[in-house]
């Protein structure tokens, strides 16, 4: 690694930064303080290098949309999360997450078909049924009930299984292996085993769909294999990626979103009492803004010098766009610390922005809109069953959230 250390490396703040246990919904205070001064500053990461941390909303959007900003993690200066990610960079196949320009467009086209607005709208009745079934089981079961295990995890897992086209009789196997790596105390070995069985499962499934395609995401990938565009392994890799990107994120957003609503009863009442799809949609955007659960920062590297907000990002310097402070930038959202479901939260960056913005955002939105609204209506007396201070937050995970959320009613 030949990245040069900036002279001020000793005095710059360390990144990543943690949220305060006293204000668990807020972005790390240090980032908010930095953003008061300027929308981008240098931070120091694990290997001593000092990439730019982008904290401002406008600067984040500008850089997300700039073609001189690359996601290619093999480029010199790319700010890797940790040593493991750096040392395995040539072992990991290229993917939608790490490719630019035409290569990215090629991957993205293979993935986006099942996630178009039209296909997702057609899935709403399925999402509604799955949500209702989970809530029926909660109401029929003992109190308190853990909303993470009983609702936040099963809804997105079942929906993504349906979308991928996993046969119904395999749901249990599929869910089990998909969740092994997510368990709080899962060993690395367990995680590895889970990933391997899942990958093998996806390989078999791709082969089956090559023979007998249906209207689902794995069939779409199998079609590309039949057309000679990708190998079976690549198709399985893309499918596994969708599964993992598609359920842990949404599950965390559901879990911590329920908690945020319980802590803001007036806002929860407004959402419960509304029948206006536009209000419900905006409420989810505001929850996405307020909670900004992706907390590792979106990693990039500059391929040319870029002038922005009075600074110059030099070619080869790393860039980390952190969504949480950008979504709490008072220049974009007055009183950002208030959860206000009536504010226009349309420009929130929780799904990223520009060409790498989330492929699954329409699906995630549909799930969140249905789950929050249905839950508030069907269990209006829901309350937290433990003191707020005892709620276990996921400070150490890529997607922020809660490990469990016991509620009574
Ligand atoms: C609340 C739930 C979700 C959140 C907060 C979220 C967040 C994000 C963010 C911030 C990015 C941008 C990454 C970047 O710019 O580097 C992203 C990309 C992506 N997301 Fe999501 N996501 C969610 C749900 C989903 C779902 C349901 C799927 C699929 C089933 C999915 C699949 C993807 C994929 C494939 C990309 C890569 C897109 C690209 O690089 O072109 N996500 N997501």
From TrEMBL:
Q: In which pathway does it act?
A: Steroid metabolism; cholesterol degradation
Concerning SUPFAM superfamilies, the annotation shows: Cytochrome P450 (SSF48264)
Known Gene3D superfamilies for this protein?
Answer: Cytochrome P450
Q: Which InterPro entries match?
A: Cyt_P450 (IPR001128), Cyt_P450_B (IPR002397), Cyt_P450_CS (IPR017972), Cyt_P450_sf (IPR036396)
Q: Name one GO biological process term.
A: lipid catabolic process
Which cofactors does this gene product need?
Answer: heme
Family per record: Belongs to the cytochrome P450 family.
Task: Name the chain's protein.
Answer: Steroid C26-monooxygenase
Q: Which organism is it from?
A: Mycolicibacterium duvalii
What taxonomic classification does the UniProt entry list for its organism? Bacteria, Bacillati, Actinomycetota, Actinomycetes, Mycobacteriales
